[in-house]
Amino acid sequence: MKKYAFNEITTWQYIFLIFTSEIGIGVLPFPANVARYAGTDNWISVILGWALITAASLFIIQAMKRYPDGTLLDLLTNYWGKWAGMAGAIVVALYFAFFSYVVFSRTVIYVKAWLLPQTAELMLVVLLIVPFWFIARSGVRVHGRFAEFVVLICCWMPLIFIYVLGDAEWLHLLPVLKEGWGPVLKGTPEMVFTFLGFEMTFVLYPFLLKKNRAAIGVITGNTLALLVYLLLDFTCLVFYSPDEISQYNEPVISLLKVVEFPFIERFEIVFLALYLLLIALTWIPFTYCCVYSTSWMLGKRDHRPHLIVFLLLLVGSYCFYQPTFRANNKMIDWMGKFGAGFAVVFPLLLWMLVAATDRYRRTAS
């Protein structure tokens, strides 16, 4: 009997979980962040970032195929013993805990800045955690269903940016590679952080019902995120001037201020309110990966007690420290560096080590 059969997810749920995790907090600021390095050629950095994380995703799949009925922690234990699994669980738990905290704190900042400026941050934390608990306490199957629901009700959101193209100045895109490949390559690491989320495959893989479609699923999820990023990036590049785009913290939201409908006065507020559902699909699975790792270390199948502790620590942290926008940006910079190592470099090393271990075992036998 499969260890994770009670929580299996379909291929589309797998795709949507990866897709929604990748278009979390990174969507709103990324055109300005990458433009600071690559200028109007930042769309090339977007494509290079996609190619890099897709390659890393495939290395994850190839490594996980060696132990298809287990997560990364089970794989490490099977190949190199209990202590390797425990060390991996600690690293995975800390990585996803920090990532979840960074995303959650940025969510609180967005809500306070755009939606509820007069509400205390601690109250916002409680308001966000209550609905989050009802989804996060469930397993991966419920997360996958929630991802399907969110994508269904939010699929129209990228199309609204086509409305803005009536004021576009397409000459901003020319000439291509005006300063060479150097700035484009410098902007690529920024896009790698923006795409982070696909590394959940380390935990999601054994829950996938049809594992032979894992590679297709992760490529599809990454490509959907790429299409969204390219649409938003091109829209911002042709709407703002080359010097103006880098002056905005969230150019995607600022862009929506020109969208007007007779029945909605401030469309960007409605957009951001719905977008909170997509952000939730970043930190909910990340939190699950964190508490799954701590539960795995203690041999517990029920992750809910660990989830309660995590949420209490999250609320308690806001009693003593409330991150500012600048502090959160520094956390994001650190997360980008950690993420590049864990999500891009580590999969290649893991695949090489697993392949080498299998070859050694066959030779020894």
What would the keywords be for this entry?
365 residues; mainly alpha
The secondary-structure element order is HHHHHHHHHHHHHH
Number of beta strands = 0
Shape: globular
Based on secondary structure, the structural category is mainly alpha
Kindly state the mean pLDDT as a whole number? 89
The whole-angstrom Rg is 21 Å
Distance between the termini: 28 Å
Describe the structure.
The protein has 365 residues and is mainly alpha-helical. Helices cover 70% and strands 0% of the residues. The chain is built from 14 helices and no strands. It is globular and about 70 Å long.
Q: How are the SSEs ordered, and which strands pair?
A:
Elements: H1 11-22, H2 30-38, H3 42-64, H4 72-80, H5 82-115, H6 121-136, H7 140-154, H8 181-195, H9 201-204, H10 214-239, H11 251-255, H12 267-297, H13 304-320, H14 325-364
Could you provide a short overview of the structure?
The protein is mainly α and 365 residues long. The chain has helices at 11-22, 30-38, 42-64, 72-80, 82-115, 121-136, 140-154, 181-195, 201-204, 214-239, 251-255, 267-297, 304-320, 325-364.
